[in-house]
């Protein structure tokens, strides 16, 4: 290794060694990849953001003007009401509780705290937490602005809910948590099979949560679709931020006093 390479790989710290103890949590590991790989990461993030924004604005326009995709709201809900059964209702209620406004924040908090404690570096769990907070803020801000009424109360299986329904907080929270978590794990392991398994599993669970909200009578298909679109925007943004902060092309140096080349992968 040349003298130049050694300087590129030198960890942060005044003596050339990474800080110890609690300060390690705030060190960001930077990973070195071929230039095409970084370009693909940026391209993927921008495509996700663009697709998410376009789909969300399309759905928003449909809801506000009562045209286009919004015309599917009642037929889709009628179909879900028609296929109700005691066994299926139990499954849908379980999904609503697990990924609901009480259980999901607890799950997210436990994952973020445990991950932050066990890992040497807190960058990825903090990104996960940030993505979740953004999703909550968007759901809380958009609902009273759009003012999309929920389905009739007599269709709701878990009691009346008079709040506005666009977008679905359940679906947005589930999508953000699972998709961001899948990316933060898969991006460091860089194994195609693992990436496929993680994102496929996340997608199946998100679609199940969509079905749950429609089946239980609390949302329209426009609400749940808008949540998935917003989640793509949030995922793409997280990918872009993570790539800008942690991805370097071979030959580049680590950025700043709080960075080190990837060693721990945590």
From TrEMBL:
The lineage of its organism: Bacteria, Bacillati, Actinomycetota, Actinomycetes, Micrococcales. It comes from the Bacteria. This is Phosphatase PAP2 family protein. Residues 126-242 form the Phosphatidic acid phosphatase type 2/haloperoxidase domain. The chain crosses the membrane at residues 41-67, 87-114, 126-146, 166-186, 193-212, 218-241. InterPro entries: PAP2/HPO, PAP2/HPO_sf. Keywords: Membrane, Transmembrane, Transmembrane helix. SUPFAM superfamilies: Acid phosphatase/Vanadium-dependent haloperoxidase (SSF48317). The keyword Transmembrane helix applies. The keyword DNA damage does not apply. Residues 1-21 are annotated as: Disordered.
């Amino acid at each position: 290794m040349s003298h130049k390479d050694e300087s590129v790989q030198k960890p942060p710290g005044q003596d050339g060694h990474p800080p110890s103890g609690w300060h390690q949590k705030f060190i960001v590991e930077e990973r070195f990849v071929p230039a095409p790989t970084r370009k693909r990461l940026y391209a993927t993030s921008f495509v996700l953001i663009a697709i998410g924004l376009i789909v969300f604005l399309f759905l928003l326009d449909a809801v506000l003007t009562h045209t286009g995709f919004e015309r599917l709201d009642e037929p889709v809900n009628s179909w879900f009401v028609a296929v109700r059964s005691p066994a299926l209702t139990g499954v849908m209620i379980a999904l609503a509780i697990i990924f609901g406004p009480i259980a999901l924040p607890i799950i997210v908090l436990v994952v973020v705290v445990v991950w932050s404690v066990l890992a040497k570096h807190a960058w990825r769990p903090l990104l996960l937490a940030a993505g979740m907070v953004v999703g909550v803020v968007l759901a809380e801000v958009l609902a009273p602005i759009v003012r999309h009424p929920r389905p009739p109360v007599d269709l709701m299986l878990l009691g009346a809910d008079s709040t506005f329904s666009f977008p679905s907080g359940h679906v947005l929270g589930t999508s953000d948590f699972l998709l961001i978590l899948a990316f933060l794990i898969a991006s460091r392991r860089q194994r195609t099979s693992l990436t496929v398994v993680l994102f496929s599993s996340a997608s199946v669970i998100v679609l199940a949560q969509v079905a749950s909200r429609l089946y239980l009578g609390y949302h329209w298909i426009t609400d749940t679709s808008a949540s998935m679109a917003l989640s793509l925007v949030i995922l793409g943004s997280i990918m872009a931020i993570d790539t800008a902060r942690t991805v370097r092309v071979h030959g580049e140096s680590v950025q700043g006093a709080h960075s080190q080349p990837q060693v721990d992968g945590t």
